[in-house]
Amino acid sequence: MSCPWAKIANVEPVNLQDIMSEEVARELQAKEDKKYAEMFGPPSKQDNAISSEVLNSLEDDTCESDAAIARMLQMQFDKEYDENLKRTEEKYNGASKVSISFENYRRMPHNFDFESDSEEEEIVDIRDRRDWDRFDTLQRQFDSIPPCGYKMQNGSMVTKHDVTMNGRKNACKLLSFPPDFQTGDGENFDLKLSNKVFNSLKRHSQNEESRRHKVRDKKEDRATQEFGLDEFTRLLIYKIIQQEILDNVNGVVSIGKEAVILHADANANYTERPLPPECAIKVFKTTLSEFKQRDKYIKDDHRFKGRMGNQTARKTVHLWAEKEMHNLKRLKNANIPCPEVVVLKKHVLVMSFIGENNKPAPKLKDAIMDEADYIIAYDQVVEAMKTLFTEAELIHADLSEYNILWHQRQCYFIDVSQAVLPSHENAFYFLMRDCNNVINFFTKKKVPKVTSSEELFKSITGYNYNEKKDLLQLQETFKMKPHLVDKPGIEPIFDFDKGWEKSKQNLETVKLVEAPLA
Q: Which of 342, 360, 378 is the last residue of a domain?
């Protein structure tokens, strides 16, 4: 049985040179193309969707390689990417003199040359470039003035002291300030600075630079800040705790323009004397210069005679705290409701806390009260003012609804550091001001039967405010005898004769008959 695969075709002998010849290869390729053309039939019609340019480029012999086409496409993509990068760079820089560069992120060289690399590069002189910014142009104008100090421009003389030119020159000098100094962008408009403004900015820059290089600011370390305590104040409070007067300090209760009020718990096991369960720590601020201007409240006080003088701010604050302590003790001895003094350390005054459970009593201005409470408060304030003048021999000098606390239907006087003696030269002026503040407040609250300020003043002193002579005589009764002024701890002695004359005005005359001696 014969098999078609068993037939072996005879191999024609071929020369090796013919095989390697290009002509033989071309003939073989033509035969192969002809064979496949007969096998698949004639080519189909061209699709109308393909443009003739694409077909011509495909038939071109120069685009036979896919790698060349890919390189051309990549080159176009890189060019578009670099153009987008350049636009982004121009957007970020704007007109600023200090600019950033995206040169390292480019896909193609900045000056891409498709020609031979052997060509010489074009050299551009930097002097032929345009000015970087407006300041370079102005600097050229400044340098154009000759050594004589003036030049003629458009028929007028322009000197080196020209206001406009100096203003622009000062604006150029802003660039010499430290980098941390915020000068802004003065290149986009015609910025001019006067010599006064520039010198102020220069001094401020120098002060900030010197302060930044300081290792330690002693003034800031010593001063009591608004929302905190300095190291010295914390040490004073720590000593009070070490003396077993206080157990702990809880936090800030209120912050005023003169002092910071802290809440603290007293030591219940203190053996020397009973202490209130809750205490208030009043820390006078040592940075305020207002205390130096308040010597008018101290200069006529015999208790501080000769101690004011040219004191430092800290020493003045110490006197102010001591004055409040003495005034609070006077109020307490006269049975006027007020905080009780616990201890005084320099400018730290510890006293009883008006309130309960860490919650301070509200001021009379902020207290929620009904009509009956306002009537009670008015009567208490008036009686306290009379007692303060007659028994404690003090005038508050800053009495208002802001310095009166309302706690358990009782009014408490606070902030008595500025209280003065009746012998003070402005004592009755301060008293009249207190009367006005009290009457105005209770009048606004529509309290019935509120007297006038003059009537309240007369009920306290016994004289009208316009009776200057009588007030001066009354003031003399409170003055201390000269030989007792410098002796500490001695209070003014009551003049019995003048007091008796004053009491006889309100009493009937009683005749006394001497009884015969037994």
A: 360
